[in-house]
From TrEMBL:
<keyword id="KW-0479">Metal-binding</keyword>
<dbReference type="GO" id="GO:0016491">
    <property type="term" value="F:oxidoreductase activity"/>
</dbReference>
<keyword id="KW-0001">2Fe-2S</keyword>
<dbReference type="InterPro" id="IPR008274">
    <property type="entry name" value="AldOxase/xan_DH_MoCoBD1"/>
</dbReference>
<feature type="region of interest" description="Disordered">
    <location>
        <begin position="1"/>
        <end position="24"/>
    </location>
</feature>
<dbReference type="InterPro" id="IPR016208">
    <property type="entry name" value="Ald_Oxase/xanthine_DH-like"/>
</dbReference>
<feature type="compositionally biased region" description="Polar residues">
    <location>
        <begin position="1"/>
        <end position="10"/>
    </location>
</feature>
<keyword id="KW-0408">Iron</keyword>
<dbReference type="GO" id="GO:0051537">
    <property type="term" value="F:2 iron, 2 sulfur cluster binding"/>
</dbReference>
<dbReference type="Pfam" id="PF02738">
    <property type="entry name" value="MoCoBD_1"/>
</dbReference>
<keyword id="KW-0411">Iron-sulfur</keyword>
<keyword id="KW-0500">Molybdenum</keyword>
<dbReference type="GO" id="GO:0005506">
    <property type="term" value="F:iron ion binding"/>
</dbReference>
<dbReference type="InterPro" id="IPR037165">
    <property type="entry name" value="AldOxase/xan_DH_Mopterin-bd_sf"/>
</dbReference>
<comment type="similarity">
    <text>Belongs to the xanthine dehydrogenase family.</text>
</comment>
<feature type="domain" description="Aldehyde oxidase/xanthine dehydrogenase first molybdopterin binding">
    <location>
        <begin position="1"/>
        <end position="200"/>
    </location>
</feature>
<protein>
    <recommendedName>
        <fullName>Aldehyde oxidase/xanthine dehydrogenase first molybdopterin binding domain-containing protein</fullName>
    </recommendedName>
</protein>
Length: 225
């Protein structure tokens, strides 16, 4: 979940309403407030201070708090500040979506993948507001040759609260999944995980092989193992 919770401050002004929202999408929030209050957009003065701790969690869901806060200030004609507790934030805004990766791999004696089938499922919760299922497809390959892979990704609707984007949406889940698969393969073929990963690496001009070998040497990897 995100470190900093959703918050907003609104106050009446001589030409409408001043809204200071903690959001990564001020334009969207601006339009949402105008629609909810049924007022011209030029009567809503939006401002955003540095938005620390957003990490994607203050993209789509920040409007929930901003609209509520602006509506209260508009109806009461007095300043209103709304700050969620971490418990409220997790219940209403959600957190990083849970993911399930099912896979079947066929490898040779060196751990080189001959065939890999991956089916992954993302728990979107009750709505698909901030689905990352499609994003994971872009990161699952990581540094590897995917020519023998087949991947299917699904966003699943459940009866849980809707989830939200968190830091590195899609990439964190996908990279941890494929690295877990590589570690699993290395245990089965009884090979060094680094050897298995480099054996499956896409043959390109990436410096990752040299970097990994340098790291093994500087960290005395062989001796520590």
């Amino acid at each position: 979940f995100t470190m900093e919770t959703q918050t907003c401050y609104s106050e009446p002004s001589e030409d409408g309403l001043n809204v200071s929202a903690s959001t990564q999408t001020p334009g969207t929030v601006h339009e949402a407030i105008g629609a909810a209050l049924n007022v011209p957009l030029n009567s809503v003065n939006m401002s955003v201070r540095r938005c620390g701790g957003g990490y994607g969690g203050k993209l789509g869901k920040s409007g929930i708090v901003a609209v509520t806060c602006a509506l209260a200030a508009h109806l009461l004609q007095r300043p209103v500040r709304l700050v969620m507790t971490i418990e409220e934030n997790m219940a209403i805004v959600g957190k990083r979506a849970g993911c399930l990766y099912n896979y079947v791999a066929g490898v040779d004696d060196n751990g080189v993948i001959q065939k890999l089938q991956i089916d992954y499922y993302q728990d979107d919760g009750a709505t698909k507001n901030d689905s990352i299922a499609a994003y994971s497809l872009h990161y699952l390959n990581n540094i590897y040759d995917t020519s023998t892979w087949s991947v299917n990704g699904y966003g699943v609707k459940t009866d849980l609260p809707s989830q939200t984007w968190c830091r590195s949406p899609g990439s964190t889940e996908a990279i941890s999944a494929i690295e877990t698969i590589m570690e699993h393969i290395s245990r089965v073929v009884k090979k060094d995980p680094i050897e298995v990963k480099l054996a499956n690496k896409l043959q390109d001009d990436s410096p990752i092989t040299a970097l990994m070998n340098d790291l093994k040497k500087s960290a005395d990897f062989e001796m520590r193992v």
